[in-house]
Specification:
365 residues; alpha+beta; Diaminopimelate Epimerase, Chain A, domain 1; 2 domains; 32% strand; globular; binds (1E)-4-oxobut-1-ene-1,2,4-tricarboxylic acid
């Protein structure tokens, strides 16, 4: 039997997400041909992604493309691609801080970066935003060791820590220029600390913010309120018509229940995240630190500054962030993630091509 040629691919968990990691040289250089191939590899469009690698949820239908750096400030370049599940669409309009956790280990595994004898720090240029991150992880004897005792909420068991640091963002933290806006009749804080995010008090949308993600997804009245709010916020944030894009994310905030700074439920943008994205959490943390934001009176900020514990449906994510409220800008943000190599091999794409550009299907999920 013959079929399409196989493609070298590594399946990895990065943080609370899972995706297919490729060297750019193993994929077509032409973006349209690349995206068509990735749809066939992941099994999209199909709500179950039965015929491909995708896991039938936006958090497990992701791709990382890694290459030698284009400039001297990075060791590798990373392009994140969100492969839609039930529509023929691949988007580079958002970044992913969870898959980012696997980029350094992948670069070592593929020989793009030489590992140190104890640990390795990899400077990563994130092509989606043009910003940089540094990932540090254990490499005893010059090999990636995925085992360790770091635990992250939303992932069973423990693994080696991957410390991810983001130097100060070059983009404005407040895309609208204001710490508070009224969109679709609701007061929000629009923030961008690597991921455009709209913070909304859960109570303003007539939910508690403590509901299970599945219950929130079934609330059709809430979905309609979220949609209207997101479309209006997207325009205000300078993102244009966001009907078919996965940014901005919308994060509902409510008082913490487990000793953290705040409780969150994040819509990415239709499905409700089972935890929270890394850069999304970075945005929440930065937004809470800005005087006058909608988190005031809701969040409990530690008196000593420093780390903020962002509660989410399956636990919490600790974010170290320093904000300069005068600019305003984030000076530095850091999180701990873990990553794991699941499979390394050759993936065989489905032969049938699908038209790109989407159909008149549903809004992104
Ligand atoms: O915000 C999901 C995820 C993400 C993105 C999403 C992410 C981030 O959890 O940095 O990691 O918001 O679509 O993988």
């Amino acid at each position: 039997m013959t079929g399409p040629a196989g493609v070298r691919c590594m399946l990895m968990r990065g943080g609370t997400s899972k995706g297919a990691y490729f060297l750019a040289e193993d994929l077509p250089a032409d973006p349209a041909a690349r995206d068509d191939l990735l749809l066939r590899i992941m099994g999209s469009p199909d709500p179950r992604q039965t015929d491909g690698l995708g896991g039938a949820h936006p958090l497990t239908s992701k791709v990382a493309v890694v290459s030698a750096p284009a400039g001297p400030d990075a060791d590798v370049d990373y392009l994140f691609l969100q492969v839609a599940v039930d529509r023929a669409e691949v988007s580079d309009r958002q970044n992913c801080g969870n898959l980012l956790a696997g980029v350094g280990p992948f670069a070592v595994e593929r020989g793009l970066v030489r590992a140190g004898s104890a640990e390795t720090s990899v400077r990563i240029r994130m092509r989606n935003t043009g910003e940089y991150a540094v990932a540090t992880f254990p490499t005893p004897g010059g090999r990636v060791d995925y085992t360790g005792d770091a635990e992250i909420s939303g992932v069973p068991g423990t693994a080696a820590p991957v410390v991810v640091e983001f130097p100060g963002g070059r983009r404005p933290l407040l895309p609208t220029g204001r710490v508070r806006d009224t969109v679709a009749g609701t007061e929000v804080t629009c923030v961008d600390n690597g991921m455009p995010t709209v913070l909304v008090p859960a109570a303003a949308l007539r939910v508690t913010g403590y509901e299970e993600p599945g219950d929130l997804e079934e609330d059709l009245a809430l979905a309609e309120r979220l949609r209207a709010l997101r479309l209006a916020a997207g325009e205000l944030m300078g993102l244009g018509d966001v009907e078919r894009t996965t940014v901005p994310k919308v994060t509902l905030v409510a008082p913490p229940r487990s000793g953290g700074a705040v409780t969150t439920r994040t819509f990415i943008p239709v499905r409700c995240h089972t935890s929270i994205g890394v850069l999304g959490a970075a945005g929440v943390a930065a937004g809470l630190r800005l005087p006058g934001g909608v988190g005031e009176g809701i969040a409990h900020l530690p008196a000593d500054g420093g780390r903020l514990r962002i509660e989410h449906p399956t636990g919490f994510l600790d974010v170290d962030t320093e904000v300069d409220p005068d600019v305003p800008a984030a000076r530095r943000t850091a999180v701990v993630r873990t990553a794991r190599k699941i499979l390394d091999g050759t993936v065989f794409p489905r032969p049938t091509a699908h038209p790109l550009g989407g159909t008149d299907g549903p809004t992104p999920r």
